[in-house]
Amino acid sequence: MDQFKTRGDNAEVIVIGGGAAGCSAAIYLARQGRRVVLLEGREDRPPQLSDLHSGEVLSPGSQLELRRLGLDTSQPATGDPLRGWKLQEWDVVRQRWPGGRETVDRLPKGVFFWQINRGHFYKTLRQLARSEGVEVREGVRVINLLLDRDGVCRGVVARDSGGVTYECTAPVTIDASGRNSVVLARLGLRRPEEKFRRAAYLLFFRELAHPPEPGVWQQYWLPRGTTLRGSFLAPALYRFSFEISLAERGRWLEKSGRLPAHELFLKILAEELPGAAKSFREAARLPHLLAFAPVGFQVAQITHDGLLMTGDAAGYLDPSTGQGLEFALRSGRLAARSVGEAFTRNEFKRAAFDRYLREREAEVQPIVRRLRLFLGASQSERLLNTIGTIAPVRRAVLRELIKTRPAIVD
Ligand SMILES: Cc1cc2nc3c(=O)[nH]c(=O)nc-3n(C[C@H](O)[C@H](O)[C@H](O)COP(=O)(O)OP(=O)(O)OC[C@H]3O[C@@H](n4cnc5c(N)ncnc54)[C@H](O)[C@@H]3O)c2cc1C
């Protein structure tokens, strides 16, 4: 096997990104005895409220993955967003359908979704990775791939927080750097999901006239596929996610001119959900607001010579069912299995990672297909209202969406 050097070290696998997919892949590989270097662009910093970003919900499937990974999930929710990663649990879904009907359903007994602080959660995953022997370098941003003359990936070019640029080489690189992956850009792999081109905004509130209650997930289905989802994170801390098709957003912007995201949100609510608009207008909001557009995209090719893409860097659809972290954790584990096999054979060409493609197709893609079907259906107000009206159908759809698919095991 070729010997590759990473600034004086001898790494076998480079993982780009210390999020859910990257930590999952790195931990499983370290457990196989592989020397793994994980490069995370963000610097370690003291906890702050802006650690709350997209993806604050952990599905039952993600919880299972975390237990499989060996993370201590038994701790009760702290309710303190600065101190723990697990904030709240909910098992009640309160929905308002496009026709105005309101329904309340409880998830099957013992099934909960968890609200988390994402920044804290990722920090905890990186600590676990370190304790398993992964060399985690924070504040190191990958800026390019190292491709040889034949297009084989030999590692990455990275820049540390001091502005020093260096090359980091290894036989295998796993890209787990999420939706804004530098690899997707460099290799031109991103393919927008034309049918589901949506924008998403995340807003956090301190005070609200009618805040979501603890243990309850609020879901508003507004006209033309727009959705608003809200939940209680901690006392005096509420998260709302607002999603709208790009076509619909374009229609609003044409009508209203350029508006800051929060103003656009208020304007749309004033028309589509007038009962709640006043409460949001007068609410005390945290200054940070996150905007994503377009949310969904596919990736043209996820295995390459010496390179695999995992998590969002391998494609993402929509946050509707709160399962992006689950897909990321699962695909990281599957990538690690395939890379482990490649090392046993000492073979790192694209074909060596076929196992990853097969297992991802068998384990992750059926859940994505279910979500795609649901998203397509949710674009029809008539269908939504029918689901909203017939309780057994509504509960069956809910059960189907949250059903935990087993992992592929040896
Ligand atoms: C609006 C919105 C709401 C969502 N809500 C949920 C939800 O409630 N529940 C859920 O499960 N999912 C949700 N998702 C999806 C979820 O956020 C993603 O699917 C998940 O974060 C993917 O994990 P990942 O590890 O692939 O990528 P990420 O979580 O994006 O992690 C990537 C990591 O790579 C690092 N990185 C990036 N670029 C570089 C670089 N060049 N060099 C080094 N490091 C780099 C980043 O700092 C980050 O730590 C939501 C998505 C959106 C858009």
Description of the molecule:
The chain has 410 residues and is an alpha+beta fold. The protein folds into two domains: 3-87 and 114-191 and 297-402, FAD/NAD(P)-binding domain; 198-292, D-Amino Acid Oxidase, Chain A, domain 2, CATH 3.30.9. The protein contains twelve helices and 21 strands. The strands form five sheets. The protein has a seven-stranded mixed beta sheet with strand order 6-5-15-16-17-14-18, with helices on both faces. A six-stranded mixed beta sheet has the order 8-2-1-12-21-20. Helix 8 runs antiparallel to helix 9 (354-363). The longest helix is centred in the last third of the chain and has 22 residues, at 324-345. The protein is globular and about 60 Å long. The two termini are 26 Å apart. The model is unreliable at 1-5 (pLDDT under 50). The structure holds flavin-adenine dinucleotide (FAD). Residues 16-22, 39-42, 54-57, 62, 122, 141-142, 176-178, 182, 200, 202, 241, 292, 295, 311-313, 316, 319, 322-326, 328 line the site of flavin-adenine dinucleotide (FAD).
Our estimate of the beta-strand percent is 25-35%
Distance between the termini: 26 Å
CATH topology category name of the largest domain: FAD/NAD(P)-binding domain
Mean pLDDT, all residues: 92
Q: Tell me the number of strands.
A: 21
Oligomer: single chain
Major sheet: 7 strands, mixed
* Radius of gyration from CA coordinates: 22 Å
Question: What is the global morphology?
Answer: globular
Task: Specify the CATH class of the largest domain.
Answer: Alpha Beta
Low-confidence stretches: 1-5
